[in-house]
Automatic annotation (TrEMBL):
<comment type="pathway">
    <text>Carbohydrate biosynthesis; gluconeogenesis.</text>
</comment>
<feature type="compositionally biased region" description="Low complexity">
    <location>
        <begin position="79"/>
        <end position="88"/>
    </location>
</feature>
<dbReference type="InterPro" id="IPR013035">
    <property type="entry name" value="PEP_carboxykinase_C"/>
</dbReference>
<dbReference type="Pfam" id="PF01293">
    <property type="entry name" value="PEPCK_ATP"/>
</dbReference>
<keyword id="KW-0456">Lyase</keyword>
<dbReference type="InterPro" id="IPR001272">
    <property type="entry name" value="PEP_carboxykinase_ATP"/>
</dbReference>
<keyword id="KW-0067">ATP-binding</keyword>
<protein>
    <recommendedName>
        <fullName>phosphoenolpyruvate carboxykinase (ATP)</fullName>
        <ecNumber>4.1.1.49</ecNumber>
    </recommendedName>
</protein>
<feature type="region of interest" description="Disordered">
    <location>
        <begin position="24"/>
        <end position="88"/>
    </location>
</feature>
<keyword id="KW-0547">Nucleotide-binding</keyword>
<comment type="similarity">
    <text>Belongs to the phosphoenolpyruvate carboxykinase (ATP) family.</text>
</comment>
<dbReference type="InterPro" id="IPR015994">
    <property type="entry name" value="PEPCK_ATP_CS"/>
</dbReference>
<dbReference type="InterPro" id="IPR008210">
    <property type="entry name" value="PEP_carboxykinase_N"/>
</dbReference>
């Protein structure tokens, strides 16, 4: 029979005489005792183990983080009860600070907080929450419970949290964390509110065309309390303390309090990550986000028109998110804050990508969502400074963020290798569809949304420039994804034209990034980011004009949209051609090309661009139906003219001549 290890040769089955009588010999286990069979298993002798139980074995697995990483939570054996001698002072400070952030406005007390995961067996330090002798009427159950704080967890820890507790979290075949953002898969601009107080009433852009829909301070506090109460009711909250802006002089300290590991990992990737030393000395944040995620606002609250509300209070330096889990709200909410704070310091905030050539030539890529900022600023031959949000100061450019947020729909390894390779361990992959077994992502699948996204730290792009700063830009590239197919793939702009197109901010909004947009549609968004600007567009335009003039930067308009017909009949310009066009801008060869001027828009188009078929450079040549082309061109020109009407009564900067030139730089018909 198989299994007893004896060779059964002929049916006879016999033990050795001794074994049969006395059963098996005893094995000696005493220390130092000689093995009963010294000649075998010689090198199986291991040094003595230093654990007695399974729990002890497990406790050995996790080494304590270095003393410079004091703010780690679960698993660190600390003290129970009030903080004792082994609690690092900075950790206690952190808890005090978070408790202050999460304090109820009405009960005037911070919640009781503990570091670490609530399921962790190891007891960790907590802050005793301050006043103890409250009148009995003020004592509530929420005041008696502890909330666990998961402060600046590492990506690995956040993966574990997400996979254990957040439905829809999976590791993909390349190691990314696939997540679902829930009902909202894009931003909700109609649900954005900005507190109008005395200061902001005077400073901000309000009224027609403005993204700033007002709310009063009192209503903000109602929503803030709602978010804070929700967060405090949870067993645990995630807290990220990070930075915005790579320019050290103009850095902002931000705190993000959220309910999901997904949100914490997203912001870990998208904001600038502090070093352990910086984290230890973080102090009080300059701006705080309370992200209550799926927890809705109360529709009976004044100003609320849906169950989603994204509220910014510049005076309190706080933002509240209720009723949406789309992580992009946090990133773009902070961008709005920068659009307010930076111009006060004479720094221009830009909705643009930015990269730098080997010789130090910097290019900006402006454009609305889906026009190619991320794709075209991620360029294997150049250093990536950032893909979406920048500042332009007296000294040059700086990225506001520490990561990139790339669209993933139809992502292909051959076309965008750097973005493809960045989707690995640590990257958040939102709303993608993958094979249930292999976990291979199908980037063409739009079942959840068109707006599938990857958020990764900028250093995941091999030629990213760290720190993400650079000298003054040489080229300012305006990207428009023209769904009408009438704008040339490339045109050179004079300063007035650059300003005209910057203020117009034209594109065909590609489906998905904003809720409810299912088809490309022509749209105008001042400064290529009206949803995020806080001041009147002419304020940013004046700063851009001044900076471009001072630095002698050249403006370009690049159509990354349709050619040979409108959306539906023509086709999108090949990414490979757009890249050739961009190469020619960077190399300087386009500056020396010969140009001709187009009708109506008066755009200068080159006769030739290396690597691009010449018959697409002049849009009419690519259209089969020339009459249809003329009609469409006029239609778009009218849309431009109508849109610009609201700006005709505004002066741009102090230069009266420039204002006149800008007004004249639009289409003529
Ligand atoms: N000719 C083109 N130029 C730029 N992007 C293109 C082009 N054709 C297709 N695309 C696709 O359009 C999308 C641009 O998105 P992205 O770069 O993320 O835009 P943004 O950063 O401006 O929001 C990408 O999915 C890219 O692959
Ligand atoms: C995340 C966004 O930015 P973009 O589409 O420009 O990458 C957004 O607009 O929500
Ligand atoms: Ca953007
Ligand atoms: Mn982008």
């Amino acid at each position: 029979m198989a299994g007893n290890g004896n060779e059964n040769t002929g049916g006879d089955f016999s033990f050795s005489a001794a074994a049969a009588r006395d059963a098996l010999p005893r094995i000696t286990t005493e220390k130092g005792a000689k093995s009963p069979t010294p000649s075998v298993c010689q090198d199986d002798t291991a040094p003595p183990v230093n654990f007695q139980t399974i729990d002890e074995l497990h406790s050995l697995q996790k080494k304590r983080s270095a003393p410079t990483t004091p703010l780690r939570g679960g698993g660190v054996a600390g003290v129970t009860g009030t903080s004792g001698p082994t609690t690092p002072v900075s950790a206690e400070n952190m808890l005090q600070s978070v408790s202050a952030s999460l304090a109820s406005l009405t009960r005037e007390t911070g919640p009781k907080l503990i570091r670490g995961d609530p399921t962790s067996l190891a007891k960790v330090a907590h802050v005793p929450h301050t006043p103890t002798s409250l009148p009995a009427a003020d004592v509530s159950d929420s005041g008696l419970k502890f909330t666990h704080v998961l402060h600046n967890l590492s990506p690995a820890e956040l993966y574990e949290q997400a996979i254990k507790y957040e439905k829809g979290s999976f590791v993909t075949s390349t190691g990314a964390l696939a997540t679902l953002s829930g009902a909202k898969t894009g931003r909700s601009p109609k649900d954005k509110r900005v507190v109008k107080d005395e200061t902001t009433a005077a400073e901000l852009w309000w009224g027609k065309g403005s993204p700033n829909i007002e709310m009063d301070e009192q209503t903000f506090l109602v929503n803030r309390e709602r978010a804070v109460d929700y967060l405090n009711s949870l067993d645990k909250v995630f807290v990220n303390d990070q930075y915005l802006n790579w320019d050290p002089e103009n850095r902002l300290k931000v705190r993000i309090v959220s309910a999901r590991a997904y949100h914490s990992l997203f912001m870990h990737n998208m904001c600038i990550r502090p070093t352990p030393e910086e984290l230890e000395n973080f102090g009080t944040p300059d701006f705080t986000i309370y992200n209550a995620g799926k927890f809705p606002c109360n529709r009976f609250t004044h100003y609320m028109t849906s169950s989603t509300s994204v509220d910014i209070n510049l005076g309190r330096r706080e933002m509240v998110i209720l009723g949406t889990q789309y992580a992009g709200e946090m990133k773009k909410g902070l961008f709005g804050v920068m659009h307010y704070l930076m111009p006060k310091r004479k720094i221009l905030s830009l909705h643009s990508g930015c990269n730098m050539g080997k010789s130090g030539d910097v290019a900006l890529f402006f454009g609305l969502s889906g026009t190619g900022k991320t794709t075209l600023s991620t360029d294997h031959n150049r250093y990536l400074i950032g893909d979406d949000e920048h500042c332009w100061s007296e000294t040059g450019v700086s990225n506001i963020e520490g990561g990139c947020y790339a669209k993933c729909i139809d992502l292909a390894r051959e076309k965008e290798p750097d973005i493809w390779n960045a989707i690995k361990f640590g990257t958040v992959l939102e709303n993608v569809v993958f094979d249930e077994h292999t976990r291979e992502v199908d980037y063409s699948d739009k079942s959840v949304t068109e707006n599938t996204r990857a958020a990764y730290p900028i250093e995941y792009i091999p030629n990213s420039k760290i720190p993400c700063v650079g000298p003054h830009p040489k080229n300012v590239i305006l990207l428009a994804c023209d769904a009408f197919g009438v704008l040339p793939p490339i045109s050179k702009l004079n300063l007035a034209q650059t300003m005209y197109h910057f203020i117009s901010g034209y594109t065909a909004l590609v489906a998905g990034t904003e809720e409810g947009v299912k088809e490309p549609r022509a749209t105008f968004s001042a400064c290529f980011g009206a949803a995020f600007i806080m001041l009147h567009p002419t304020k940013y335009a004046a700063m851009l004009a001044e900076k471009m003039q001072a630095q002698g930067a050249t403006g370009w308009l690049v159509n990354t949209g349709w050619s040979g017909g409108s959306y539906g009949s023509g086709s999108r310009i090949k990414l490979a051609y757009t890249r050739k066009i961009i190469d020619a801008i960077h190399s300087g060869s386009l500056l020396n090309a010969t140009y001709r001027k187009t009708d109506i828009f008066g755009l200068e188009i080159p006769n030739e661009v290396e690597g691009v078929p010449s018959d697409i450079l002049e849009p009419i040549n690519a259209w089969a139906d020339k009459d249809a082309y003329q009609d469409t061109l006029l239609k778009l020109a009218r849309l431009f003219r109508n849109n610009f009407e609201t700006f005709t009564n505004h002066k741009i900067g102090d230069d009266g001549n420039l204002t006149e030139e800008i007004l004249a730089a639009g289409p003529n018909f």
